[in-house]
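Researcher: Here's the sequence for the chain we discussed earlier.
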Amino acid sequence: MSKPLLSALVAFSLVTIPVAAHAGDEAKKADPVKKSSTCTISIKKGDLIAQGKNLVVEGQDSVRDALAFDGDVVVRAGATVNKVAAVRGKVTVEAGARVAGDVSAVGGDVHIQKGATVAGDVNVIGGKLQVDEGSTIAGEKNHLSININGEEFISKLIGDIISGTGTTQCQVRITEE
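Model: Thanks. This is the structure I predict for it:
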């Protein structure tokens, strides 16, 4: 996944926080107006992407970047992926799998299994990070999770925005460069 795409995902998460802060004010109004915006994700040749379903990178596969939106990403043993990300989904890097770059999840969990290798950073925003002993992560482990009344705030916020149940909704459009 390109640095601009990862930056866009992080920026999207950061932009949603102020929207939630105003959600309480909007709820007080008699007729809250839902705003709709389009979130665009650009993919390049060699990328794998799934929307609304799980994405599995099999052991014989060597792909550039893998992204699941509203689904999980599983990188199987023997597979090599440049970068992996999930938005509202879990990322699992199985034993024997290799990620040459970063692993990221926004609104989901990341599990790096024993024997898996990540050459870059592991980033989790709004989920849990599980790193098994015996796995290798060359970069940093970055984790941000905010729990309010036992509920993960960022995951709920992203879910509300995407599903349109909050004051703002986001329509995802995937384009190929």
